[in-house]
């Protein structure tokens, strides 16, 4: 599958639809819409947002970066549609986010996923992310699982 990764605005129509699909999936996995500690990301705090699509411009996935100081950022709203899972889209998106982070001079990426997302935990561990203590608004959240990866 040919995957195209492009930088889009936070309010891009396809990106907005993908984030809504992610919310629906997470609501179903967690059994409620109360599964995100902290402040949800917005256009004001997402440094960049990427969209993955196929050669026909069908949106396949997305992901963004939220700065956590001068040398690190958090991956936010990483999502791939069900029919594109296992095709390399998630890996391509993750590598593109890492490349963008390096171009911004960042040394480390952090992320949070949750107990009802074992597939995500396996993916991040396979891609070189290691479990860390909960950070920021995820501290004391029993369902949160946090990860990090050095970019150097």
Low-pLDDT stretches:
none
What is the overall shape? globular
Distance between the termini: 29 Å
The amount of helix comes to 25-40%
Order of helices and strands: EHEEEHEHEE
Mean pLDDT: 96
Gyration radius, rounded: 14 Å
Main sheet overview: 7 strands, mixed
Number of helices: 3
Assess the beta-strand content as a share of residues: 25-35%
Order the strands across the largest sheet as they lie in space.
Answer: 1-2-3-4-5-7-6
Q: Helix/strand/pairing class, anyone?
A: alpha+beta
Q: Number of DSSP strands?
A: 7
Overview of this structure, please?
The chain has a 7-stranded mixed beta sheet, with helices on both faces. Helices cover 28% and strands 30% of the residues. α2 (89-103) links the parallel β4 (72-80) and β5. 28% of the residues are buried. It starts with a strand and ends with a strand. With 152 residues, the protein is of the alpha+beta class. It contains 3 helices and 7 strands; from the N terminus they run βαβββαβαββ. The mean pLDDT is 96.
Summarize the structure.
The protein has helices at residues 13-30, 89-103, 118-126, and strands at residues 4-8, 48-53, 59-67, 72-80, 108-114, 130-132, 144-150.
Structural topology:
Elements: E1 4-8, H1 13-30, E2 48-53, E3 59-67, E4 72-80, H2 89-103, E5 108-114, H3 118-126, E6 130-132, E7 144-150
Parallel strand pairs: 4-5
Antiparallel strand pairs: 1-2, 2-3, 3-4, 5-7, 6-7
């Amino acid at each position: 599958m040919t995957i195209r990764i492009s930088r889009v605005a936070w309010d891009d129509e396809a990106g907005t639809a993908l984030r809504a699909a992610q919310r629906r999936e997470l609501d179903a996995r967690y059994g409620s819409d109360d599964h995100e500690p902290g402040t949800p990301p917005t256009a004001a705090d997402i440094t960049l947002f990427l969209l993955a699509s196929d050669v026909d411009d069908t949106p396949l996935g997305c992901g963004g970066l939220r700065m956590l100081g001068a040398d690190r950022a958090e991956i936010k709203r990483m999502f791939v549609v069900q029919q594109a899972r296992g095709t390399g889209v998630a890996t391509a998106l993750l590598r593109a986010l890492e490349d963008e982070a390096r171009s911004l001079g960042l040394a480390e990426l952090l992320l949070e996923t949750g107990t009802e997302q074992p597939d995500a935990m396996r993916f991040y561990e396979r891609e070189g992310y290691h479990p860390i203590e909960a950070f920021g608004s995820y501290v004391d959240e029993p369902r949160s699982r946090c990860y990090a990866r050095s970019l150097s």
